[in-house]
Automatic annotation (TrEMBL):
The keyword Transcription is assigned to this record: no
Protein name: 3-oxo-5-alpha-steroid 4-dehydrogenase C-terminal domain-containing protein
Predominant subcellular localization, coarse grouping: membrane
Protein family: Belongs to the steroid 5-alpha reductase family.
Organism: Emericellopsis cladophorae
């Protein structure tokens, strides 16, 4: 069994150079079109718009299992590809960037599902498309960091300036902190609801589905500042990888294509749930624009 799995992975994870080029090309073209289908429907089988279904998975475990393969793929590619390419070691820049990716996903995949006081059930379609996103993204970025991008200090020097690299890492850090801060505000709403309703009959159940209009930080202006901060984070990552890094650019573009329709539909959900008066003046995700 194990050897047949390994046999299937050979040449795909990590991919050969030709396969890497093909996967990356498909990733850059198919994913934005696929994600754009969301503009045609208000259906989203997770979070606020999750509906009872026999195809639902428990939210926490869905987040855990769909997000974890991304950073495992990055680690696996960075561990195995250098030897296949005859590289003795990877430059520290590759390791630092791989580390930043893993750091984000230790939060998103491992900590986030269990820090949330509650997460609504998730439809298997949402979970499986996120899983596919994670694996493809992890393979593309992990392969670039593991040997198909710069692999010597001289190549890094010709690829991105030190100022740009440091600036990108700082922007990544600010985006991660902002993403965490706004996620935490949403957690706080649920924690307060839970404390308030703890003493009432079926209070726990009610607290699970409590939604308020969040107000802290950029929530004053936006309904989805945690999404915006995540985009800032991956913009910083792309900047540090160098503007020519196609997998980092594709990651940011594909995140925006996936999350923008969710934020716009989410804004409509807030308006329908809380009324025009209480929700007017706030944008979905881009300050002053959308
Ligand atoms: N969704 C994506 O496509 C996607 C992609 C990449 C990264 N991310 C990142 O993953 C994180 C979570 O994304 P998400 O789409 O699940 O965000 P979300 O819809 O805002 O939900 C986040 C969590 O907060 C709760 N929540 C949401 N709005 C609330 C409110 N008004 N009052 C109280 N609790 C509220 C949700 O509970 P319920 O589950 O009960 O609704 C859920 O546990 C974000 O930081 C985002 O940047 C998301």
């Amino acid at each position: 069994m194990m050897s047949s799995i390994t046999g299937t992975l050979v040449g795909w994870v990590p991919p050969t150079r030709a396969r890497y080029d093909t996967i990356l090309k498909l990733w850059q073209t198919i994913m934005p079109s696929f994600a754009s289908i969301q503009w045609l429907t208000k259906w989203n089988g997770m979070g606020k718009t999750s509906q009872p279904s026999m195809f639902n998975l428990p939210g926490r475990w869905a987040w855990f299992f769909m997000e974890i393969p991304g950073f495992l793929a990055v680690l696996y590619c960075m561990r195995t590809l250098p030897a296949q390419l005859g590289l003795v070691a990877l430059p520290w820049q590759n390791k630092l960037l791989g580390g930043l990716y893993v750091l984000h996903y230790l939060y998103r995949a491992v900590a986030f599902p269990f820090l949330q006081p509650s997460i609504n059930d998730m439809h298997i379609l949402n979970a499986s498309s996120a899983l596919l996103f994670q694996i493809t993204n992890g393979v593309c970025l992990g392969s670039w960091l593991g040997g198909y991008g710069p692999v010597t200090q001289a190549q890094w020097a010709g690829h991105v300036s030190a100022t740009q690299f440091v600036g990108g890492v700082v922007i990544f850090g600010l985006g991660l902190a902002g993403n965490y801060f706004h996620d935490e505000h949403l957690r706080d709403i649920r924690r307060r609801a839970r404390a308030k309703q703890a003493k009432t009959a079926d209070g726990e159940k009610k607290a699970k589905r409590t939604y308020e209009i969040p107000q802290a930080g950029l929530f004053q202006y936006l309904f989805y500042p945690h999404y915006l901060c995540e985009w800032v984070e991956w913009f910083g990552f792309w900047m540090a990888c160098g503007w020519g890094c196609a997998p980092a650019r594709a990651f940011l573009v594909n995140e925006i294509f996936s999350m923008l329709p969710r934020a716009v539909n989410g804004k409509a959900w807030y308006r329908d749930s809380f009324g025009e008066e209480k929700t007017k003046g706030k944008k979905a995700v881009l300050p002053g624009i959308l």
